[in-house]
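S1.2 Input.
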Amino acid sequence: MALSLLGCAGQGPGPQLMERPASTPTSLEAELLADAEDRRLDRHTTLDAALIVSGVRDHAELAEFRARFAKATAPALAAARREATPAGRARALLEALFRASGSRPLFDRYTVDATTLIDVLERGRFNCVSSSIAYLIAAAELDLDVRPVMLPSHARIALVDAGRRIPVETTSPYGLDPDPKIVAAATRRFRAELRPGSVDLYADAQGTEVDFLALLGVVYTNLSTVQALAGRTQSATALAERGEAFVVPSALPLLRGVRAALLSETGVAHAKAGRFDPAIAALLEAARIAPDDEMRALTTQNLVFCGTTAIDRVASGDERAVLEVADRLASVPPAHAVVRLHALSTVARWRQEADDHDGAAALLGEAAQLPLLGKARAVAARNFAHAELNRLQVVSQRDPEAAWREFQALRLPAGDAETAATARRIGARLAERRTLSLAREARCPETEAAVADWLALDPHAASAVIRAFCHSQRGQHYFKNSEWAHAAREMRQAMQIHPAEPAYRGNLLGALSNLAFEHIRARRCDLARAAIDEGLALAPSDESLRDAAQRCPR
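S1.3 Output.
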């Protein structure tokens, strides 16, 4: 149903026009263009005009294809004439065109590039343009009021019956006043699948009613696109100019929009088939010539689909290839930003898997600076925050204080409760490592301040263990230097903070015993008794303290 051109594997170009140089019109084309200058076909029938645009080269071919069309449509016309109402005849005609008469139906198989009436007659292949043309010509034999309708990326028919305009999707036998499933199936043929949050550019689209000549102009536009994609620029330009000659000036933006849509749809077809280089080329050209915001939005959506799909197909670890895909879209900033976000996120994931967390965070930091909107911007901010949190966990293993400083400076995306919860959990882990690092260095006042930061993130943190450990470390330092009074003071504080740890009790007893004997040797029994009494209160049977008590009786 799309105005697309490519995407059906194994299907070659249509007949004659595709095989000959198109720069110069044939004599038949020149006659038709002259006839159409006044927006009326005075010297040609609609059938002849459609066949000439399709590529017949001379009057003999024209007569041959004219007869073939009459023969092919005769059974459908006969079936339709048995119906009493215009809607009945229109429905019967459409259904009959899909039924076999002879070897095959006239409308046998939808093919995205079958844009001419000759495609229909020779192969039974059709798309929305060629099927609309064939239906319009046949319907005229039934005196039906049928009119072409152009949408941003689609062609269909409007049947006017008793003042009501009834849509006809000519690519389905059930296309008269079709249900939503028929419309949805048509849409899926030529655009990327809608992703969550995407805008449906086709929802409730009514289209623009045009005349038959404008529909013929679309055929030329289709064929021009084929030539352009094949690199035949001169022929493409000539065909595009011929197409515009069939359209009133006020409708030229519509026709140019159709050409942009054709390129866009061609890109989608290539992308779905895994041919990403021509897909991106077609989509970039579509973006360049898009005449309005709606078409630019469609092209952007398709570029994002193509670019992200191409990136997902790149072999794991090939960073250069991934980033080059995004770089190719630089001329279309909205698409480039989203695809570059996907590229940077993909490469960052590979780096994280390789434990290069610094590199991953750097890429996601770049992604967070992209000119993104809406959900994409939120995703970029979240990804960067999580990458920074992962990086800081690695940094904290070698420099807990630096990791903590960076964590305090980290800006989290506003309103993201999940990321905030993750940051709180990881921040508590960083605070624990920082506290433990300070405790190992016996920097107890700083440890107490770090404990306060830790408890602010995790009120249930086992901070007493580390606080006691810090004083034990200080006590060990004094113990090694035979500073027994200071050692006893620190060991006493460790035991008070964490009384369940038996080592602290043993360390305090050792410090008190050494302090007592130091006083005894200096004949300071009055001072020794204080240490002895404190120790015996903790361990009445401690032999060293009992010996000290005997040496220094009351």
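S1.4 Remarks. Residues 24-190+207-249 form one domain.
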